[in-house]
Amino acid sequence: MNIKGVITGDVINSTAIRVDWKKQLIDSIQDVADELTILTPLEIEFFRGDSFQLVVDKPEEALKVAILLRAGLKRKTPPESKNIWDARIALGVGEISYTSDKVVISDGEAFHFSGWGLDEIGKQKLTIRTRWENVNEELKVSTAFADDIISDWTNSQAQVIYPTLLYQTSQKDIAIEYNKTAQNISKLLGTAKENLIRMYLERYSTLITRNLI
Known about the structure:
With 213 residues, this protein is of the alpha+beta class. Helix content is 50%, strand content 16%. The chain has eight helices and five strands; from the N terminus they run βαββαβαβααααα. It has helices at 22-35, 62-75, 109-119, 133-151, 155-167, 171-177, 182-191, 194-212; strands spanning 3-11, 42-47, 51-56, 87-95, 126-130. A five-stranded mixed beta sheet has the order 2-3-1-4-5, with helices on both faces. Helix 2 (62-75) packs antiparallel against helix 5 (155-167), helix 4 packs antiparallel against helix 8 and helix 5 packs across helix 7 (182-191). It is globular. It starts with a strand and ends with a helix.
């Protein structure tokens, strides 16, 4: 059975983003996606200008990809921007029945779950739907809490949470890179609730891996 993760996303308030930043926006999403291939093979395709879809080969890593996409967008927001860049993201985990050279015309339940999730996302910015109802039930509340935390991340918090989650970069090394004290980095990670996000990611990975066996 070909179980994968499919992420469908669209940039929030994209019409308010300056026209001369639009290419930078798309390039930023592409650059983040390229970096995330250290977690899992993935493919990304853009459609309708500022919407995108990814196929994530390792479904147990798909949630980390989704969260880091949002963190990556936030950290790449131009300093002059009044609004921090972010995206609504719907993750679907399930079988892929048809694979095309073009991601957006591939098919299968993972695509359906992701598409339905984005259609029904409402005021949330992150949703998950899998082929296992018990997993969906368990993740429903924790995803709402995690989404609330992620939505409040500032540019500064995203700057430190991104390398911490992706590369496991130490606080000391992040402090050196951004010319800050280790204490300041620790405070940013604390206010970003990094420990809770890690617990959420670990639980998701455990649930998905358990159902793949």
